[in-house]
C-alpha cells in the first residue's frame, strides 16, 4: 500500500504547479482522497478533498478559486492544480486516501498517506 506524490518544485508568486498522487499496492480507485499541507513550523492543514466518484469536492477557504482537485480512477491518481500561487502556499504537500468514498477535512480520517512533495513559492 503506497501513495506517491509528484510535482512539487520552486515557482514564482503568481505561477502554477500541478501535483499528482499515484496509488499502488492496493486499489484506491473509489476511495475519497485529499491533499493536506504543512508549512515550516506549522501544523498540517487541510487543502482540498474529492469524493470517490469525483463529483464532490471541498476546499480550504484560502485556496478556493485558485486550486482544483481532480481524479482519474482508471489511473488510481489524484491531482491538484495550483494556480495564482502565493508565498504563503509554501509547504510540503501530502496526499491522503480514506477507507471509503467519503471525505473529511480531518487528518485522522485518512488511513493512507504519501511521502509529501515540497512546494516553494518565491515572492
How large, in whole angstroms, is the Cα Rg? 13 Å
Low-confidence stretches are: none
Biggest β-sheet description: 7 strands, mixed
SS summary, helix count: 0
Helix content: under 10%
Order of helical and strand elements: EEEEEEEEEEE
Summarize the structure in short.
The protein is an all-beta fold and 123 residues long. The protein is 0% helix and 48% strand. Strand 5 (45-50) and strand 6 (57-59) form a beta hairpin.
List the helices and strands and how they pair.
Layout: E1 2-6, E2 9-12, E3 17-24, E4 33-38, E5 45-50, E6 57-59, E7 67-72, E8 77-82, E9 91-97, E10 112-113, E11 117-122
Structure description:
- The chain contains no helices and eleven strands.
- It is mainly β.
- Strands 2, 4, 5, 6, 9, 10 and 11 form a seven-stranded mixed sheet that branches. Strands 1-3-8-7 form a four-stranded antiparallel sheet, with no helix packed on it.
- The protein is globular, with a radius of gyration of 13 Å.
- It starts with a strand and ends with a strand.
Notable features of this structure?
123 residues; mainly beta; 7-stranded mixed β-sheet; 4-stranded antiparallel β-sheet
Amino acid at each position: 500500500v503506497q501513495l506517491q506524490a509528484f510535482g512539487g518544485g520552486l515557482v514564482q508568486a503568481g505561477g502554477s504547479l500541478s501535483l499528482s498522487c499515484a496509488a499502488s499496492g492496493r486499489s484506491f480507485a473509489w476511495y475519497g482522497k485529499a491533499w493536506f499541507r504543512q508549512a515550516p513550523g506549522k501544523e498540517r492543514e487541510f487543502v482540498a478533498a474529492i469524493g470517490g466518484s469525483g463529483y464532490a469536492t471541498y476546499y480550504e477557504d484560502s485556496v478556493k478559486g485558485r486550486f482544483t482537485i481532480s481524479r482519474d480512477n482508471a489511473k488510481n491518481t489524484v491531482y491538484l492544480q495550483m494556480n495564482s500561487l502565493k508565498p504563503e502556499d509554501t509547504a510540503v504537500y501530502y496526499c491522503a486516501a480514506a477507507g471509503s468514498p467519503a471525505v473529511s477535512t480531518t487528518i485522522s480520517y485518512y488511513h493512507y498517506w504519501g511521502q509529501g512533495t515540497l512546494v516553494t513559492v518565491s515572492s
